Amino acid sequence: MPRSPRPRRSAARSPPSSPCTPRQRRTSRARSCDRGALLTRITVRFPVPADRAFAYLADPRNRPEWQSSLRKVTDVVLVDGDVTAAGTTWTDVTVVPGVRPRMRTTTSEPPHRWIEDGAFGPFRARLELVITPDGDGCLVVADFDVRGVGVGAPLTWGSRGAVAADLRRAGRALSHRA
């Protein structure tokens, strides 16, 4: 018995439930749509004003104090003598032997917004910090992702807990500084 033909799809389609394209949903590129941003957004309250939080977080030389994946930061190259300026570069020496991503500040809008990008082999990472006043302190919103070789999305998702813990550690460190 011959099969009946499949019904034709209507030309009028409902709008997608997500702004992600099908390819973005299948790959680590989900960061570029709302769904990816929501999966990687972390908010931590800092007990210090926004300008102090920005100055501390945007200075890569402070990172080993609060970022658990780092042993040290080397090769810091400043722009116009300002360590937080866009264009500043450095190398992260991580706790994983041989993994030393080269980092660069791509956006610096003190004391509200700071973005870094990093690269190591086929991997790319991006971290954006948005800092807003909140009473006598501030809120730090971190949006981040890792891209590369089909494992970017799992690495991003798996890093959420560590990024949140690192930001809480930074907030505590700042609260103890004079």
Total of DSSP H or I helical runs spanning 4+ residues: 5
Helix content: 25-40%
Bin the strand percentage: 25-35%
Q: What's the architecture in CATH terms?
A: 2-Layer Sandwich
* pLDDT averaged over residues: 82
Largest β-sheet summary? 7 strands, antiparallel
Radius of gyration: 20 Å
Number of domains: 1
Task: State the CATH superfamily name.
Answer: START domain
- Number of strand elements: 7
Shape field: globular
Distance between the termini: 84 Å
Query: Could you spell the SSE succession in H and E letters?
Result: HHEHHEEEEEEH
CATH class descriptor: Alpha Beta
CATH structural fold name: Alpha-D-Glucose-1,6-Bisphosphate, Chain A, domain 4
User: Which spans have pLDDT < 50 for at least 5 consecutive residues?
Assistant: 4-38
Q: Strand order across the biggest sheet?
A: 1-7-6-5-4-3-2
Look at the helices and sheets and give the structural class.
Answer: alpha+beta
Describe the structure.
This protein is α+β, with helices and mostly antiparallel strands and 178 residues long. It has five helices and seven strands, in the order H-H-E-H-H-E-E-E-E-E-E-H. Strand 6 (123-134) and strand 7 (137-147) form a beta hairpin. Strands 1-7-6-5-4-3-2 form a seven-stranded antiparallel beta sheet.
